[in-house]
TrEMBL record:
This is Nitrate transporter 1.5. It is a multi-pass membrane protein. The chain crosses the membrane at residues 42-70, 90-107, 114-136, 156-173, 199-221, 227-247, 349-371, 391-410, 431-451, 471-490, 511-535, 555-577. Pfam families: PTR2.
């Protein structure tokens, strides 16, 4: 192997022992096979985790209070502000697909992360400058007591340019940084394979810890009108994240981009349709594979082994007499079977992915209806008023607690019960448990709402705190959502990273983000439909402006029912799903036995 030969040459001159290279095809910054001891692992992984925490702090330092900035500083009404924030949030997730495409196709994950983080920093600096110099006029405005004056069109334009640069930078960066972190661990090595599984849990924990700081400290400053300080803090955090990321350059492991996947997918479907009348013969001897079935690309990607689902697509790789006449060189007529299997992998993932969207509907309630419910409850602790939005801190604490419990308690117990050396519950099992806990969270929220209504003042004009029920009764529903995130979103990150082909890892992470995005849209659709139906015959509806006249509890129970149906569909999809099978990169059986013993 090239890596072994290289290490032998080095050892001749330096008197060192032969250095082991990674087995998953990863390379160093210069494109040489990555040496295990000098690259990746937890040194690089820790840098990426801290980078993620700082970047998340920066992003939520803007996003969590953006709706208040639009109403207090730019003088938009509630509906317009909410609509603009929804558009901005949706754009972030759309840009995640752009970042994943560029990463997998052309730039690679390191370059993509560096470029989009640079755009992210520029956007935050632009927002901070615009806010400090142009938008906060008169000085000290932006609070409930002091309104800001009007702004010129170019000042508004500068603001929107800045926040959409933030959306572009964060959206393009997010799906790649999780995958790039996972790249630092060789899953063909037992010890690093276990570390790779742990990395996704710690990654999600870093994300939540970053948002915890922004949801408490930065939100407090911005709520007091110190918008410029909050935005400059976010810009400083993003800049520190970028510097830290670049500082770890020499330690990272990389995978070479695999080219445009859209062309590869279209080639498979086109070739299969052209041969729709061809009858497939048993066996694989007539299925075309580039380079005689060895690694089929120069990017080091592992070959996907042949499977028997979606047999129609195998026709794209079936060699006919006409293919011999064209010299086996027309990719729109004949595709390698590994290329066909790449398409099959994505098709198998889609039903699982669709089942995660309704979970995201439950997750999005924390930023909307949970807050509105908390606003109508007693939120005073002594003389201090607890902001309803800050109750999401209990969600973050729950995430941290359950990540620890799963890694240290649940997973070892499951392995001991099964009497195997497995990593515990599979990703699909954890995602199913996440759906079960999500149902419990909606039931808990509905029960709390029943009691909130029982102790509410029906005839209030300003209904903030109109129920004598304490806001701390919301803790169980926040804690249950946090627990479900650990099983669903962490499992989802691991699942899509493990089950996507080597050339589409960032696309797998982008699927997680688009699930959240579509969850927002589906939630909005369900709310619209519920209000249209429940307001017939001049009724107040389930979710009126005054919640004391509505039935928010019924909406929560509706979501619990829909999630239960989604769970049933998910179980069928999970039982049907067949895992990706990759060709091992071991030299011989003795090396494999040594690895398994290790």
């Amino acid at each position: 192997m090239a890596c072994l030969q290289l290490s032998k040459e080095v050892s001749k001159y330096k008197g060192e022992e032969e250095e082991e290279c990674t087995l998953d095809g990863s390379v160093d910054y210069y494109g040489r096979p990555a040496i295990r001891a000098k690259s990746g692992r937890w040194v690089a992984g820790t840098i990426i985790l801290v980078n993620q925490g700082l970047a998340t702090l920066a992003f939520f330092g803007v996003g969590v209070n953006l709706v208040l900035f639009l109403t207090r500083v730019l003088q938009q009404d509630n509906a317009e502000a909410a609509n603009n924030v929804s558009k901005w949030t949706g754009t972030v997730y759309i840009f995640s697909l752009v970042g994943a495409f560029l990463s997998d196709s052309y730039w690679g994950r390191y370059k993509t992360c560096a470029i989009f983080q640079g755009i992210f920093v520029i956007g935050l600096v632009g927002l901070s400058v615009a806010t400090n110099l142009f938008l906060l006029r008169p000085k000290g405005c932006g609070t409930p007591e002091i309104t800001c004056g009007s702004h010129s069109s170019w000042e508004i334009g500068l603001f929107y340019l800045s926040i959409y640069m933030i959306a572009l930078g964060n959206g393009g960066y997010q799906p790649n940084i999780a995958t790039f972190g996972a790249d630092q661990f060789d899953e063909e090595n037992m010890q690093e394979g276990r570390s790779k599984v742990s990395f996704f849990s710690y990654f999600y924990l870093a994300l939540n810890l970053g948002s915890l700081f922004s949801n408490t400290i930065l939100v407090f400053f911005e709520d007091k009108g110190l918008w410029a300080l909050g935005f400059w803090s976010s810009a400083g955090s993003a800049f520190a994240a970028l510097v830290l990321f670049l500082a770890g350059t020499s330690r990272y492991r990389h995978f070479k981009p695999s080219g445009n996947p859209l062309f590869r997918f279209c080639q498979v479907f086109a070739a299969a349709i052209k041969k729709w009348r061809v009858e497939l013969t048993p066996g694989e001897e007539n299925l075309f594979e580039a380079d005689g079935g060895k690694d089929n690309s120069s990017n080091g990607a592992r070959r996907i082994l042949h499977t028997h689902e979606f047999k129609f697509l195998d026709k794209a790789a079936f060699i006919t007499s006409r293919d011999f006449k064209t010299g086996l060189h027309n990719p729109w007529q004949l595709c390698p079977i590994s290329q066909v299997e790449e398409v099959k992998c994505i098709l198998r993932l889609l039903p699982i992915w669709l089942c995660t969207i309704l979970y995201s509907v439950v997750f999005t309630q924390m930023a909307s209806l949970f807050v509105e419910q908390g606003e109508a409850m007693t939120s005073k602790l002594s003389n201090f008023r607890i902001p309803p939005a800050s109750m999401s801190s209990f969600d973050i604490l729950s995430v941290a607690t359950f990540i620890f419990l799963y890694r240290r308690v649940i997973s070892p117990l499951v392995s001991r019960f099964r009497k195997t050396e497995s990593k515990g519950l599979t990703e699909l099992q954890r995602m199913g448990i996440g759906l079960v806990i999500a149902v419990m969270a909606m039931v808990a929220a509905g029960i709390v709402e029943i009691y909130r209504l029982k102790y509410a003042q029906k005839d209030c004009k300003h209904c903030s705190g109109s129920s004598s029920l304490s806001i701390f009764w919301q803790i169980p529903q926040y804690a249950l959502v946090g627990a479900s995130e650990v099983f669903m979103y962490v499992g989802q990150l691991e699942f899509f990273n493990a089950q996507t082909p080597d050339g589409l890892k960032s696309f797998g992470s982008a699927l997680c983000m688009t699930s959240i995005s579509l969850g927002n849209y589906v939630s909005s659709l369900i709310v619209t439909m519920v209000m249209k139906i429940s307001t017939e015959d001049h009724m107040h509806g389930w979710i009126p402006g005054n919640l004391n006249h509505g039935h928010l509890d019924r909406f929560y129970f509706l979501l619990a029912g829909l999630t239960s149906l989604d769970l049933i569909a998910y179980i069928f999809c999970a039982k049907w799903y067949k895992s990706i099978k990759l060709e091992s990169k071991y030299d011989d059986d003795s090396e494999k036995e040594k690895f398994e013993a290790y």
